[in-house]
């Protein structure tokens, strides 16, 4: 009896694994095809310099990848970045993202030179992409070729990018910083050892994770954490970006704490290139 049961559950387990493996292989193939067929697009979420008079100043965008899947429609990065990372496809995909974002920024800078003043384009780098030895060289080639200013490129990395190989990560960061590329710690506060990483790695910007922002109104603990990150940023002379701002009350709280920069649905969702240009047009026509 028991033996039988055991065998059955073994088979079920095995079969589930089989299905999962098949799905992953399928996704991997789809991603490969998507790369060749140019099915990825970048969306751009505006980042604002917060102002107490509510005249928030548009000072850049975060580039966020989407997959225009011919069968399933627009897909969010959470549904394919993990597989891209596991299969190494993140390397060509990530390189494409940097190219695309820099080309776009260069076009926008030419049309709206006001963006030059403190503006920048932010690009997310995944852990595997970050530790590839050629990353600084790659970025160098892309920046030179597109003609954007090094200072206006901001890379966003999470703690996990630093954890795998700390020596290599430190070396990479030093090379990027030497070129004046801006480094932002993304999802700050959610990792294992955010503070110890803060101590050891050079950076310019902390992005307060949206989980702290979305709970500001209900949780005095979230308020305390945000205040503390603000103080940390101030004392370490880092810029702070609050991500995931969805309400006026959150903007108010962040302004009171001296938070300089913010992004979130309250201001704008991530936009297509055309939508972003409409926003830029409006913004600089009236300011
Ligand atoms: P992230 O870098 O922390 O990006 C912020 C995410 O929050 C984005 O999700 C954005 O659309 C979403 N968001 C923005 N404002 C709000 C808001 O007010 N409320 C809420 N609830 N969410 C908001 P998205 O675009 O789905 O991206 C998810 C993650 O995928 C990103 O998190 C980033 O880690 C990764 N990712 C996106 N694009 C790329 C890329 O080009 N390369 C790599 N390696 N990773 C990327
Ligand atoms: Mg990010
Ligand atoms: Mg984030
Ligand atoms: Mg994230």
TrEMBL record:
Gene Ontology terms, MF aspect: kinase activity
Keyword annotations of the record: Kinase, Phosphoprotein, Transferase
GO terms (BP aspect): phosphorelay signal transduction system
Ranges for domain EAL: 24-284
Name of the protein: EAL domain-containing protein
Species in which this protein is naturally found: Leptolyngbya iicbica LK
Included range, full protein: 505 to 791 of 791
């Amino acid at each position: 009896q028991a033996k039988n049961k055991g065998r059955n559950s073994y088979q079920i387990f095995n079969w589930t694994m089989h299905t999962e493996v098949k799905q992953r292989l399928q996704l991997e193939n789809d991603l490969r095809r998507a790369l060749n067929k140019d099915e990825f697009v970048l969306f751009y979420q505006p980042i604002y310099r917060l102002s107490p008079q509510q005249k928030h100043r548009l000072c850049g965008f975060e580039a966020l990848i989407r997959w225009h899947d011919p069968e399933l429609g627009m897909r969010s990065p959470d549904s394919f970045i993990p597989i891209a990372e596991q299969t190494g496809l993140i390397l060509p995909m990530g390189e494409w993202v940097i190219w695309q974002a820099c080309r776009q920024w260069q076009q926008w800078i030419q049309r709206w030179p006001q963006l030059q003043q403190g503006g920048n384009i932010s690009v997310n780098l995944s852990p595997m992409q970050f530790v590839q030895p050629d990353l600084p060289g790659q970025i160098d080639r892309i920046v030179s070729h597109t003609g954007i200013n090094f200072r206006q490129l901001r890379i966003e990395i999470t703690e996990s990018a630093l954890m795998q190989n700390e020596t290599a990560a430190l070396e990479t960061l030093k090379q990027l910083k030497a070129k004046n590329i801006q480094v932002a710690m993304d999802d700050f506060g959610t990792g294992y050892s955010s503070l110890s990483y803060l101590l050891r790695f050079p950076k310019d910007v902390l992005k307060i994770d949206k989980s702290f922002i979305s709970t500001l109104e209900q949780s005095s603990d979230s308020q305390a954490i945000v205040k503390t990150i603000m103080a940390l940023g101030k004392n370490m002379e880092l810029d702070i970006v609050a991500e995931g701002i969805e309400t006026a009350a959150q903007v108010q709280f962040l302004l009171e704490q001296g938070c300089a920069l913010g992004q979130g649905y309250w201001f704008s969702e991530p936009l297509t290139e055309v939508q972003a240009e409409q926003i830029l047009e409006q913004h600089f026509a009236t300011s």
